[in-house]
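Holo prediction — zinc ion.
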Amino acid sequence: MIMIRMFSGVCTAAAIAALVSATATAQQDVTARARAIHERVIALDTHNDIDPQNFTASCNYTMRLTTQVNLPKMKEGGLDVSFFIVYVGQQDPRNVPDALQAAGYERAYRAAIAKFDAVHRLTEQIAPNEIELALTAADVPRIAKSGKKVAVIGIENGYPIGEDIRRVKEFYDRGGRYMSLAHNGHNQLADSHTGEATGEWKWGGISPLGRKVIEEMNRLGMMVDISHPSKGAILQAIGLSKAPVIASHSSVRKLADVSRDLDDEMLMAVKTNGGVVQLNALSGFLKVDPRERGPAIASLRAEFGLPAGGGRGGGAAAVVVDARTRRLRRIDARSKRERRRPTAGAAVVVVPRLGLRRCRRIAVPSSTESWRKSIGSGLRPDARRSRTTSIMWTTRSS
Ligand SMILES: [Zn+2]
């Protein structure tokens, strides 16, 4: 009995060893094949959010910033093409009464232009020898072949075009090659996926203006992005568009039942339309967290004195050394109190912390007024002349 057991144990161990070695070889094969494919094809990411603060002379994508995408990381990771995103968040008329009026549209428009300008600064002034803006499909292989990285512009949320259909052409002329009609919240063009939470809809899909916008996008050659609008709006957009649509960053509802993901009906409609779905690998789109996870993480963060996390720009902080007191101090990027009242004249040095995503170098002037101005203009006055000190300002993206 013992002998048999031992024998069978040896056999099992040998079998396992053989299996492990075969699996390891197979794994190496798969990895090698995957690498070969990766090197052969043009690798493209269709949705990379940007912050114009990372597109300045002193802080930009030629540097190894903590952003997920920048030129050093694109080179190392073999990413050839990045869609940089002109994203403008949707304001809610319940909180911002003029959100869907002229003044609100104007604010959104300015925010969009700052992002268009940022991409043009990168490709035309900061690093024209390293990255070039593609305006046609043919530009992409041409630029990639030249050894440069390829930038393309996608517009996330049609909100900033306001009610002026001519802005679709303007955004196209500024380089926008796809646009989603809505983001998180209904707007003048379409319903958002967020309506699923309450079952409240503004248009029951796409608004009359949104329909004209799709027509204009088709005319110009701008892709209709179906990531973010409601299911009704997505199905109507697919029905209206004469060209294939894309989902620039959505996933599959069968995996995670969240309103941002596409169900089978939507996926089949995209298939019929000849469109493309680019999967979003963000965890919330792939695996729904158990209910207890959020509160558990919140209490952990509280225990370690970290700011509350989550969301676009949420939970960002920089740890600084106050040279006057020689003590560590945490600055919460979302804290308005810190923004308004920096430590006047105190020298601060940044200690980077994991989880930081963007950098922004600004000066801390000695008065609150000039502090506000420096944030507004993005200028970095000479530290000696203005008797100011530097701080690296960081926020986290998602
Ligand atoms: Zn998005």
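READOUT: Residues 156, 227-228, 249 surround zinc ion (CB under 6 Å).
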